[in-house]
Amino acid sequence: MPTSYVQAIPSVVDAVLRAAPSSVLDVGVGFGKYGLLLREATDVAAGRYRPDEWRLRIDGIEIFAPYRTPVHDYAYNRVYYGDMFEVLERLPVYDVVLLIDVLEHVPKEDGRRLIDKLLSRAGKKLIVSTPLYPAPQGDYRGNVHETHRSRWTLVDFQSWDSCWRLVPTPDGGAQIVEIDPPANWTDCPADRLVARAAENTGSIGRLDVAFALPHLHLTGGIKILLEYARRLRERGHRTRVYHTGGKHAGPLPAWSDVAVDEAASFSDSADMFGTVRDCDAIVLGWVRQLENSERSQVPLFYLEQGYPWLFGDVSDVDPDAVRSYLRSQYRRPVPIGCVSSFLADVLRVRYGRTCAVVPNGVDTAAFSPGSEREGATVLLVGPASERFKDFTTAVRVLRRVWEEGTRFQVLWICQTPPTLLNCPFPVRFAVCPPQDELPDLYRSADLLLYTSQYEGFGLPPLEAMACGIPVVAAACGGIDGYAEHGKNALLAPPGDVEALAAHVRDLLVHPDKRRFLGRQGRTTALRFDWSAVVPRMERILASVAQFKNPSSAIVGRPFDCQAPLLYPPL
Questions:
Q1: Concatenated DSSP letters for 262-285?
Q2: Hey, what's the signal peptide range on this chain (predicted)?
Q3: Does the predicted TM-score (pTM) go above 0.85?
């Protein structure tokens, strides 16, 4: 219909005002609400009440001419009536382009093409609003373009340099997405050297490598860093673990049994950079550790595993400040690797980095299939406190399956048991189990349900696959590096309760399908065994260690982009 979420008005208007535009193009004018609101928020608020005093140019495009109202003629300088793709061909560049509750009306591929086209007409930013859960909708008042034809999630916007936030609404939420036009990046010389080294073969001498932990909490990212320290030591290298979260704790987490040659705690990364002089390389595990990296006396390598800000999830913070801070960190001349092709694309689009991909590994000897069993246990893994893990959707999925008559029980591995109100199915919590008990817990389940909105990799599904446990998961980005729908897992768009519930129900009532996906998943996991992954990291670290040579191509050579930093670092 020719209207949009009233709840989204403050976020949309704020996004426009932060850009300080002199011109705005409103694509999909509808009633004309945003033309009127922006006219009041800019010209009228500045004392320019009469139209002949207005300075902000506001144009619009509306495909359905019968939607024309007096607002169009009053608030807008000009409204063009016709197909937006055709009209855009003859329009100039505007500082800000609005696409408010339009994207869901076009098929996904046409929507991607539309965003690219609008970015070519946006000098500062494109602002998109689209429902998280579009309601079924057909024609309205003879307008065939009102039909809802696609649903978009945060993962869909990773092809562009975007910031995303969710505004709560009674039907699930309005997604507000701010997209910057593509920047003209210069290359980081270190990226090419490291990416080339990842593909090389040949003997490697003994390395002395430190892994810097930003904290000691039990997370997938920390587990991966510690496992590299363990595996490299087993291959004859000297390994160290440094905790940069303060000298009051650590240096090793109590939940890990990793053994290393040296461990120490520092007040922060700057303290570590100023102290450590005698190792071949330091592997950083968190973007904040890049601060003061120019002080390091040994080569650095940052292993990116993903976190909300990197994917543009800035629901609770100033998006411009976040974008400026991250840009200042990722444009430092420190080589970067990442754990999936999905992450590599994000880093390339947002920061012009060409990163070597080093996928996460799994211990396929420990995580291995058990004896065949017939049961109905659904496994959940992860902290309910992390919003992007989206256990709200997991519970809705399971409730849907239960209400449709299929019976099961739930095993939830977590750090803190959540409060589940009026939950109809039985739930058993495994709270902070020892790490060596995880494989047995996985093997006690019949399928894993994984509903993250986005992930840089997504380790629990791979661990489940290694145990021969079938996986039902949201197609949350990083998981696409190893999970294929119908071949070794069942996938659905993030937040798609109906599709995920159908997959869970299908596997619960068809043991043969569970066995098939379990076998296929195990075959997939074997390709990600640590024995296959660690040599790739070994080659990368050997190349990074060579940067100690003063004649190295990257030493002392800064690089930058044409896009300005809008705010100082946080």
A1: EEEE-SSHHHHHHH--SSSEEEE-
A2: none
A3: yes
